[in-house]
Every structure is written in C-alpha cells, then in structure tokens.
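During the reporting period the student researcher (J.K.) took over the structure-prediction task from the postdoctoral fellow and processed the backlog of single-chain submissions. One of the processed entries is reproduced below for the supervisory committee.
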Amino acid sequence: MSQTVFEAIGGEARLRALVDAFYDTMDRALPFAGLRALHPLTLDGSRDKLFWFLCGWSGGPDYFVERFGHPRLRARHLPFAIGIAERDQWLACMTLAAEQVEIAEPLRSRLLASFAQTADWMRNRAEVDAAPP
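J.K. obtained the following structure tokens:
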C-alpha cells in the first residue's frame, strides 16, 4: 500500500507548520506585498482554510469539504486579480515554506510541481504588455 502525501509529509502538525511558514513569509517579506494585499488584515482564516484544504488534498482528513463543500478553487478565487506576479509570489512563498519546514526531496519537488500547476490554473487576469511610448 502506498503512502499518501499527508502521511509522507508527517500529518497535520507538519502540514500546519508548512501553512504557517507560508503565511509568515508572505506577511513579513516585502517582495510578497502584492500577494499579501489580496488577503484580509488578519490571516487566521486564510491559514485555517489552506490547512483544511491541504489536509484533504494530500489524502488526510477532508476538513475543508466538511465545512464548505467542494473546494471549487478557481471559482472561490475569481474575486481576486491573480496574474503571473501573484502566481509567482505564491509559489515563491510556498517554496520558502517547504524549505523552512525541511520537506525532503523528492516529496518537496513533487509538492511544488503540483502547486505550480494549480497556481497557474488559478490565474484570472490577462497580462497585458505595456504600450510602446
């Protein structure tokens, strides 16, 4: 029987540490100010929702679905302008968080590849080249 991502990462405590490291990085680092601006002043609800979602997504308890129903990630994020910059900031924060909580290879690469696909799919803002002068 193969191990779930949830088990491989170390369960709820380790997943919570990843989420907290992600939001701590986003909240404190100036390069992520654009991403931070898309979130409420307090990040407690955002932290919980990402943790609940990642638990179920990774093969653990389905906390998010129990509370809110199907994740419908793209639909839930449509009110927020998400372009390439926001996608890249999200991925950079998650990469730093995965390094901080010491998620070992090859699991880290596997997680980040999945996150990259999802983050790109979440984009809902067309990138427009600046008009020539």
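The committee noted the following: The domain at 5-121 is CATH 1.10.490.10 (Globin-like).
J.K. will present the remaining backlog at the next meeting.
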